[in-house]
Amino acid sequence: MRPPPRDLLAALESLRERLKEIPQADERRLQQLKTELLGRRAGALTEILKALPGLDAETRKTVGGAANALKRELEHAVAAREAGLKRGAADLADVDLTMPGRPQWPGGLHLVTQVMDEICDIFRELGFTRAVGPEAETERYNFYALNFSKDHPALDAQDSFYLGGDVVLRTHTSPVQIRTLESYPPPVRVVIPGLCYRRDPFDASHSPVFEQIEGLAVDEGITFVDFKATLSTFARRFFSKDTVVRFRPSYFPFTEPSAEMDVACQICQGSGCAACKQSGWMEILGSGMVHPAVLENCGVDAERYTGFAWGMGPQRIAMTRHGIPDIRLFFDSDVLFLSQFVK
After folding, report:
1. Across the strands, what pairs with 12?
2. pLDDT tens digits for range 65-78
3. CA atoms of 175 and 288, how far apart (whole Å)
């Protein structure tokens, strides 16, 4: 007894669903599917084709056309999978299965990220809270509130990335100092990590995009002694307890007096080498006492409160600690280089 046409069309649709099994089949399973679907004696599609002579002409034309179309699709899919398996076998023939496998790098925090976290943790233990702010800033927050004059070279488009109008990609994380002082009354102690942007050449010691960590402490009675003691403690915690530090007079618009802080070269221990340019010292940060004008710009009484601030580059500090000669190594994504520092 021949199955009715509706059952034959439903069977064809069911077989069409099995097309999905072919692309994932291995060699053994592919042969099973060929037998089950296209086998000359008991294949599912063969059984449907055997039923065609018992149908009327119109139905035979409909079912036969659908069955033949499906047969072509199945044969094409099987042939494509067989070709793919042959290519895979040929590729495998060139592989020496007796060779040991390559070790898989498990991944980890980037060296600069590790250094940033360590710096922030040291200052957290000294009473500082981490603060963040936007990377796109107005000229007021990035320059004017920090006591930059309107004709300062840093405001030129050749030095800073302007997004339009008076909006600029921040050139330092110092704008967060202003936002913090405007939002919270003293006492304030914050450490501020984040990305900064400047039109610097991409060379061994500069990058147009770089990480920076700044710090700010404002309270009654803070003196230069507190400032030196805090940063000296940081250096000896980060490098070693015997690290020698020095402060050199400098100038920044937002601090007065200002100082650069150096540490004895960690490679030559102060005797002089190529890394420190034979000086025995390596600069790690700029710092100073907060300029009274900056406090007044934030609505803080400069007669009552004083403070100190500093800024450092984690890339430079990582280079100092590990003797890395080129800052571009941090951006190359070289697994062999980075894996040395995975913890």
Report:
1. none
2. 888 888 888 888 88
3. 16
What's the sign of the alpha-carbon dihedral 56, 58, 61, 63? negative
The DSSP string of 281-337 is EEEEEEEEEEPHHHHHHTT--TTT-EEEEEEE-HHHHHHHHHT---GGGGGS--HHH
Query: How many of the other CB atoms lie within 10 Å of CB of 82?
Result: 16
Structure token pair of residue 312: 């450092």
Q: Among 101, 105, 102, which residue's Cα sits nearest to residue 333?
A: 105
Tokens 């060929």 correspond to what residue? 34
- pLDDT, one tens digit per residue, over 280-321 is 888 889 999 999 999 999 999 999 999 999 999 998 888 888
Q: Is 139 helix (H, G, I), strand (E, B) or coil?
A: helix
Query: What 3-state DSSP class applies to 270?
Result: coil
pTM above 0.85, yes or no: no
All residues at 6 or more sequence positions from 84 whose CB lies less than 8 Å from its CB, including other chains: none
End-to-end CA distance of the chain: 74
Contact present, 132 and 192 (Cβ < 8 Å): yes
Residue 88: which of 134, 26, 4, 32 has the closest Cα?
26
Q: Which of 20, 3, 18 is nearest to 63 (CA)?
A: 3
Pick the range with the lowest mean pLDDT from 37-41, 190-194, 211-215, 339-343.
37-41
